[in-house]
Amino acid sequence: MKKRGAEQRPLRVFVLDCDALALAVRGDRKMIAWLDLAARGEAEVVTSPMTLVEAYDGRTTEQRWDWVLSRLKAADIGKDEARQARRLLADTRPHGHKYAIDAVLAVIARQQKGQVTVFTSDLDDLEKLLPHTIVVKKV
Fold first, then answer.
1. What's the rounded Cα separation, in Å, for the pair 90 and 126?
2. What average pLDDT does this structure show over 66-95?
3. Distance of alpha carbon 99 from alpha carbon 27, whole angstroms
4. What is the phi/psi pair of residue 3, to 5°?
5. Structural contact between residues 14 and 47, judged by C-beta atoms closer than 8 angstroms
6. Which pLDDT tens digit goes with each residue over 42-54?
7. Number of domains in the chain
């Protein structure tokens, strides 16, 4: 039951691509601020399991990775999400491994509830794969 006069804000969801995640792991202040919102329960941070692998570069300590991973969720993906990603690529015409992870990330972003923002270095690619209701922000 809602308290009288209390407004419920829509949940904020931040979806991170490889470069956004790498920035967070390297301690970028802006990305850490977004992660801090999640730690305070004011947002959720989501990425794909493939993005976790793609962002790893070996120069960061395991403790740093663990800290960042403790503040985000790796979305479950399976055959249905793979089909959706394939359909997105078929509809928008890009193809190849360069676009595969972006397509899966777009499917994950589309599944989220609330105010969704995708942080990416690939504005053009993700803007083609996402509806205008999802904000795509350059990192």
1. 14
2. 92
3. 26
4. -75, 145
5. no
6. 999 999 999 999 9
7. 1
